[in-house]
From TrEMBL:
<feature type="transmembrane region" description="Helical">
    <location>
        <begin position="21"/>
        <end position="41"/>
    </location>
</feature>
<keyword id="KW-0812">Transmembrane</keyword>
<protein>
    <submittedName>
        <fullName>Uncharacterized protein</fullName>
    </submittedName>
</protein>
<keyword id="KW-1133">Transmembrane helix</keyword>
<keyword id="KW-0472">Membrane</keyword>
Length: 241
């Protein structure tokens, strides 16, 4: 029965008896090989980034935005990595002057970093790199604490990320990914702007400030009103959200 179902075994044993050992080895090796190739293909074609694929702990909580308005936020931490993805994607944040946002906390490198992506088309909304005072331990303790409850966080913007400074060049990106390989997938298709070293925001008519909610802080993001042109068909219009 087994032989009929498995084409490899069927092929190897179809003439029965004679010298089965070599054929058996071939059967075992090719079965493993097929399995290996198959799972590699699955991995390659799985459109989800690595941090969404494996097992991860989920955390969900509410955040009060004043006037009894409550939005839902969530985070997940892929098992075996010092990495947390936080999603503030409730569309009700828009009514309170916030933008929807996903932030990626990577604690695996020399210094913890956060990559902030404001919701919008990839080619228009950069990956903003900043630092954090959280550690993996404090972030996880915080998540366990707020899971299923209403998080009490101050809503005063504590930080400004300047999204108008020049994006990193290829070399800078490679250097960043060398230390923090986990964020490569988060930044795919986006310009990467390292806001850690300031740069002095020149507020102008071409800029505007939007607010987003991170795990521990509220940040102002300075955006260019008219983002740089790209070759994409989407660059014909300006997407606000
Ligand atoms: C968070 O709370 C939800 C619902 O109460 C629960 O299913 C989940 O396991 C909790 N997450 C963790 C990591 O404890």
């Amino acid at each position: 029965m087994m032989r009929k179902n498995n084409p490899v075994l069927h092929f190897c044993f179809r003439r029965g008896n004679s010298v089965p050992s070599l054929k058996l080895v071939f059967a075992v090796v090719s079965t493993f090989y097929i399995h290996f190739v198959y799972s590699a293909v699955i991995r390659e074609t799985d459109p989800r980034p690595w941090f969404e694929r494996g097992h991860h702990d989920q955390y969900t909580w509410s955040r009060e935005l004043g006037d009894d308005y409550v939005v839902t936020e969530r985070a997940y931490a892929p098992k075996g990595y010092s990495f947390v993805v936080m999603k503030s994607r409730d569309k009700d944040v828009l009514y309170h002057g916030y933008r929807r946002c996903t932030s990626y906390y990577d604690f695996s490198g020399k210094e913890p970093i956060v990559v902030v992506t404001v919701k919008g088309p990839k080619e228009k909304k950069p990956c903003l790199v900043t630092d954090t005072e959280l550690t993996y331990k404090t972030a996880m303790a915080d998540l366990v604490d707020r899971n299923g409850s209403t998080a009490a966080t101050s809503l005063k913007p504590l930080k400004t990320l300047d999204g108008t400074i020049a994006p990193m060049d290829l070399q800078g990106e490679q250097e960043l990914f060398k230390h923090n390989p986990g964020i490569r997938a988060a930044c795919r298709g986006r310009r990467i702007i390292d806001t850690r070293h300031g740069g002095g925001t020149a507020f102008s008519d071409n800029n505007r400030v939007v607010k987003v909610l991170l795990l521990d802080v509220v940040v102002n993001v300075v955006q260019q009103k008219v983002p740089p042109k790209t070759s994409s068909w989407r660059s014909s219009g300006f997407f606000d959200l």
